[in-house]
Structure formats: structure tokens, C-alpha cells
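Exercise 7 asks you to align residues with C-alpha cells for two separate proteins.
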Amino acid sequence: MHLFSWNINGIRAVSNNGKLDKFLDEYDPDVVCFQETKINEATLESSGIREKYDGYTQSYSFAEKKGYSGTAIWVKKETLGEDIEEMGCQLPEISDKYGSASNEGRLTAVDFGEFCLISVYVPNAKRDLSRLELREHWDKELLALVKKMKKPVIICGDFNVANEEIDLAHPKENRGKHGFTRVERAGFKALLKGAKLHDIFREENPELREAYTWWTHWGSARANNVGWRIDYFLVSQVLLPRVKKSEIYPSVFGSDHCPVGLELK
């Protein structure tokens, strides 16, 4: 089974310009998780995306704000059948003290029987760190959610944090800035440790540098590979025997992120 995760930064745009079709044709994923779909139920129906990609069972979580956030999981019908059902797996409400992120469609989950697959788009702390407190609380809620689940999980998506210095091009210059604060990194490490999850790509490639999944639009960052690794596949410890490999696909264009992949036996 080949799973992919991609912050697509607007699913309608990437569908309309042909980049999504090219990706699906070239890699033929069994499962693909999307983040930042920027679509709601009404625009999904009017876009014709369900019909255009009807080879996949499509599950979505929508943001209330139009053209913002959102996650999805697509499962190929011919490979896995049509009986995969979306779980009612959502983050608990976040108190107004932190500013609610529960209405931003940041989590979609599908039950595969042996495990639960979660596509997650973790809140960005923002350049001025105005959402850092929310982010800290959200990380704790995600950890609590995973620990309560009664089966192993595979969590993938845009976590909006570089875990270690090796995961970004300029760690010293970005220390303390959004995406590389002590709070965000501690929250990510707590998720790994507390839920017994494994960052598969880094464990397979402990010394590999310049392996990034996101690049700013400024300064030819992608052309020069000045990026960050902020998109991950995290796998429960008990599922490790099923893991074959994890990869990053920087040659896939269409978003400021590239896809990441996980192959299971």
C-alpha cells in the first residue's frame, strides 16, 4: 500500500492547472492525504472534483472560513474497496482563551481496520507568534486524542514545525521564529514520545541533509533548495513491521509544499 501526503495549497487550483492529474497519473497512490484544500462543501460540489476523480472515495473536513485550511483523505476504490468509512474523529473544542481552531477543518481521519489514518494540518504560530499559545494548546489536544484511540495510528500532514536543525536550511537564523520555536518543537517531540510515534523518514535517513518539503515563494528558495522539512508521516510503534520506506518527492510541483510518501507491506 502506497500512501502520500501533500499540502496542496488549494485543491481546485492544482486540479485546474493539471498538476494534480499529473501527480496521480505518475505515482498512482492507493491513498492520498491532502492539507490546505481551501474548499468547502458547496465549492466542492460545484467544482466537479468528486466526479472528476471518482476512482477515489473522498473524505473531507471543511473550514467554516471560505477558501481557508481544510483537510482530506482519498482512498482508491479499486485497490481497497468502497467500504472504507470516515471516522467521526475530531479534535475537542478549544476554549476561546486560545482562539478556536476546531472550525478550520484541520483533521480528517479514516479507519482502515488495523489502524486509523489521520490527515492533519497543524495551526501555524504566525510570523508574530500571535497563535503560538493556540498552537501549544492544540498540540496537547492532538496528543490527548491519539492516546485515547484504541488502535494504532498513522498521522501525516503539515505539522508547521521543523523538529531538528537538520530539518531546515538555516537553523541558526530561524531559532525562536515561527516554525522553529522551543514551544513548537517541544510539542512535536511530546507527540512522538507520548503517543509512541516514529518519524519514519528521519529514522531511515538520520544524517540526510537538504531533504525539505516546503519552500517560501521568495528569493528562488525552491530552485536553490532553501527549505524546511515540516511535512511528516508519523507511525505507531506497533506498525513498524509493516513499513517498507518513506520518501520525499521534491520534483512534484503545484504547491509550495511537495508530497511525502509512505509504503506499507
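Second protein for Exercise 7:
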Amino acid sequence: MEPQINNNVRKLETSLIRQVLMKSREIEDSINLTIGEPDITTPEIIIKKSADYMLNNQLNYAPLGGVAELREEVAKFYNTKYNSNYDADNVMVSVGSTEGLSTALKGILNPGDEVIVIKPAYPLYEALITLYGAKAVYIDTKNSSYKVEASMIEGAITPKTKAVILNYPSNPCGTLLSEDEVKKISQVISDNNVYLISDEIYSEVVFTGNKFYSPASVDNIRSKVIVINGFSKSHSMTGWRVGYIIAEKNLRDHLVKVSQYTISTPSTLSQYGAIIALRDARDVGESVKVYEKRALYIYEALTKLGFDVVKPEGTFYVLADYSKISKKESMNFVLDLLENTGVATVPGAAFGTEGCIRVSCTQKIEILADAVKRLENYILLNKNL
């Protein structure tokens, strides 16, 4: 008889996003519109100053919870931008926002707890909730313009609810909540004994005329808010693996223990890169303009092809409903599309929303135009999809 692995691990599968990505690599001349990997290069000043730091300093282990200067810069950034009242003791540095989210959930969840997740949802949420022995409870926002309402959250809270996860700007929709909507949700959190985990990894990628409102700006729930953020999307620092958690100090100190026994400390060099990002490369407006142009191009192009498309207000994703074009399940639709056109997208099933695909607009306009042309030919040649 052989020893058995964790039962919760057995329940996990490789995400559909990665499955399609790996499949696309087997196809010649494929166009990868799957993972959210910015193609815009990391700002030069971050690279140069980080390289200089590495050449002139010994890279020792970083302090538990992160380098003090970075934690101070993060607190200052949030206080300036969102009128919050944080200091360095509220900030814990993580290995990207993924480890931040993992540490936060591991730190607060007990077996049998429930976490409210807003659909469509990034698949990492359910995976981590399952891994830590809790249960994901979903709120579907398809009929509310892909924006959760306070009344929906209030109706989903039970005595077992430990936390609510918000992700705006939304992956995969690119939708945002208004200031009024954030305040109403904050009141629900205030009235209940639950945490609000705000995944703000796309908070800097907001399009013209829109604004992101962080729950961290709401005074009466600050002790219940756990902010997850990082530099992967805003500064194209995906491979640097540096992010952060902001939380009430007592909770933050407990989360540092969780992180310590998971990863010890994040990369010292990456943390100095993040300091430079906040001090010398805070303005990411030019990159956001590029993402906006691409996302609106895909939005308009897919709309003309017969998709029902959610107009993005941020991120670099477009969610498109193909139900007028095909009745196939989304994974089958995506694989057929990939096989016949070489265009790799993500099935809506990855986010708990069938009948849709997500397009990642992290390629140049010319490449996106090629993808659109291939899609157009595919639809014209396959009238009975």
C-alpha cells in the first residue's frame, strides 16, 4: 500500500488557460491570446537601476515581510492615490500577487469556511479555496452587466462566510465598480463579520474616462480589507515575481508567518526593482493607452463579427459571448478555433462562464488584426458551428 497525497490536491487540475496555451505551442504560426503576459517591456529605468544595485551590493536575504523601503513606498502610494491611512507595518511583500492571495487565504481560512467569489472569476480563487479546505460560493453577474451588486453579496453571506473576493478591474471582463457601488458593498462588509479581499492587480490599467475605487479608501471597513496587488501588469514585471498584501497590522503580522513558512522571503533584487517602479516609474499612462487601443479594437472587431462583447473599462482583456455563432461548449469551441485558425483564446469555462471566450490583448495591433481576419474566415466557412 502506497501513501496518499492530499485529497484537496487531488481535486485540482491544470487551469484551462494553461491547457490551451500548451496546446497552442504545438501549432505552427499560432497567435497566442491566452495568458495575461504584457508584451510591453519593463521600464528601462527599473532594469538599469536594478542592474546597478545588483552589481554594487551583496544580495542577502530580505527581512521577513519585505524590505522596509518598499513597504513604506507601497503605503505612501495607497495613501496618496486612495486617501487611505496605511504605514509600512500594514504591508507585506509577496512573491507576486499569486503568493499574496495564497498567503491571505491560507492565513484566514479554516476547513468548512465559505468564500464568496464573483463570476466570471479568475480560476486561481477556487483552486486556493479548495486547497485550504474551504468552499467557494459563487455569485453570477452575467445578468448585471458583469458587475456585482451589494444586495447580491448580502444575500450570499451565511454564518460560514469568511471572506468575499472582489476583482476589479475584472479579469476576464475589464469591468469596474463605481464609487457608489464600492461604498454600498463596503456597508455590507461593515454589517457582517467577514473579510473583503480586494484583488487590485489591474488597478493601474484603467481606460480613459474611468476610475478605479479601492475599498481601502473606505474608513469603516479598513480593518476587514485585505488588498492584493503587485507590479506584473502595471509595470510588465511578470518574471520579477513581486507583489504585496496590505492589511490591518495584527492580521498582516500573522500573514507574515504564513509567508515565512512558505517562501521565506521574496527576492531582494525584485523588491528593489519594485521600489524603483514606485519612485521613478509610477506613471504607466503610455502603456495603458496601448492596452486601451488594442482592447477597444478587439471589442469593435468581434462585435462586427457577431459576438456579444463586454466593453472593457480596464485591464487588457475582452470577454466575448459567441452563443449567436456556435452552441459548442467553450473548451470545444476554443480548441476548434485553435485547430482551424491557429488563434488561441481562453474558454469561458475557465472563469465559470460558458458560451464565452476571453481574448488577451497583449499583442501588437497588426497581430490582433491577423487574428481577427482568421476569425472572420473561420466564421464565414463554418456557418453551422
